[in-house]
Design a protein that fits this description.
There is one protein chain. The protein is of the alpha/beta class. The strands form 2 sheets. Strands 1, 2, 3, 4, 5, 6, 7 and 8 form an 8-stranded mixed sheet that branches. A two-stranded antiparallel sheet has the order 9-10. The protein has 10 helices and 10 strands.
């Protein structure tokens, strides 16, 4: 009932404080933590971090800056033996009576990251099992689940994981974990615009429980959340709010664009304030990050404005160069969506 009261409030959006509870802290270990989108949501829902594991040092800097009390480890999940030792040394056991959460890097399964290549092109990376750099990280994560046997686990990825290798990849994961005694809920394809996030963002979530309890899935709203309200509240904290300088020619082109229209030269879209934002773009870890066009001002969005569309709090600071700040924001799970998933996990398995 408390959760329902939150959802029917007259305000147009939720904030993480709506989910914050201090009782019944449930331990979690976070993998592929990135900038902490999933982690903020689980923290707000009352979960307690035992460890956060992230390979990229810059992302670790962001986590440590914002949450000095979190135990953040710069480590590589693909190194299974070292990872087992690291976790065992920190939790004191080869079992974990809590929750594993993580989203293995999704490039091998992503359609969006490969749209610019032909399937016969050597640069086309959506190859599932054959991908040597990131493709196996899903199985490294599954292996850690099998070793430590957490009570609950969550896997986040792009929806392309459903059909890569004609479903072989996902079927292998399900079969492997079911043989370990896990009950897995059917893959959930969630579009965040129907879950109090002002952005179109489609992601796959897999949730498993060591036993026979059933998961009660999230219930979507009837209408998507428009992004206009995101830009109506002034930004007080100027961190990550440096805006890009545009040429006069570009500004004139942007001024003439209708809502939702694309500037073909710059390949950027002007957001429609009456609709959800288009998916926030991450950019590569080496390439330049970029953003959509502001609905009211003829310029691209700042990192802070993009983070708002992802539902990060304004006081959450992203470290590094601006392009890498965009990468951190774009790779994240929206914290508000994560908080709803965490609340559903708590209600289904721990209460």
């Amino acid at each position: 009932l408390e959760f329902r009261r939150v959802l029917v409030r007259s305000r147009k959006n939720l904030v993480l404080s709506d989910f914050q509870k201090k009782e019944n802290h449930i331990p979690i270990i976070s993998f592929f933590s990135g900038a902490g989108g999933l982690d903020l949501g689980f923290e707000a829902a009352g979960f307690q971090h035992s460890m956060l594991i992230e390979k990229i040092p810059l992302f670790c800097d962001t986590l440590r800056l914002n949450r000095p009390n979190w135990s953040v480890f710069n480590a590589d999940v693909s190194e299974t033996e070292e990872m087992v030792e690291l976790i065992r040394n920190n939790i004191g056991s080869l079992s974990f009576d809590g929750v594993f959460i993580g989203g293995p890097p999704c490039q091998p399964f992503s359609i969006a990251s490969n749209q610019r290549f032909s399937k016969t092109d050597k640069n086309f990376k959506r190859v599932g099992f054959e991908h040597k750099q990131n493709g196996n990280l899903l199985f490294n994560y599954v292996e850690l689940i099998k070793i430590f046997r957490p009570k609950v686990f969550l896997i986040e990825n792009v929806s392309g994981l459903m059909d890569i290798d004609n479903g072989k990849q996902l079927a292998s994961v399900y079969c492997d974990l079911q043989q370990q005694g896990y009950s897995l809920y059917k893959p959930q394809i969630i579009n965040s615009e129907y879950f109090h996030v002002p952005q179109q963002r489609i992601r796959l979530f897999i949730i498993g429980y060591l036993g026979n309890k059933k998961f009660s899935p999230l219930q979507p709203t009837n209408t998507p959340l428009a992004c206009g309200n995101t830009f109506e509240t002034p930004i007080i904290n100027q961190h990550n709010h440096i805006t890009r300088e545009h040429s006069a020619e570009s500004i004139l082109r942007y001024m003439e664009l209708a809502y939702g229209q694309r500037d073909k030269k710059g390949r950027v879209d002007r957001l429609d304030p009456s609709k959800p934002s288009k998916t926030i773009i991450a950019g590569g870890t080496k390439g330049g990050g970029r953003s959509h066009l502001h609905p009211y001002i003829p310029r691209t969005l700042s990192v802070r404005e993009s983070a708002r569309l992802q539902t990060f709090p304004d006081d959450y600071i992203f470290t590094g160069a601006v392009a890498r700040q965009f990468t951190q924001v774009g790779n994240a799970v929206p914290p508000i969506l994560a908080a709803q998933l965490a609340t559903a996990i708590k209600h289904s398995y721990f209460e």
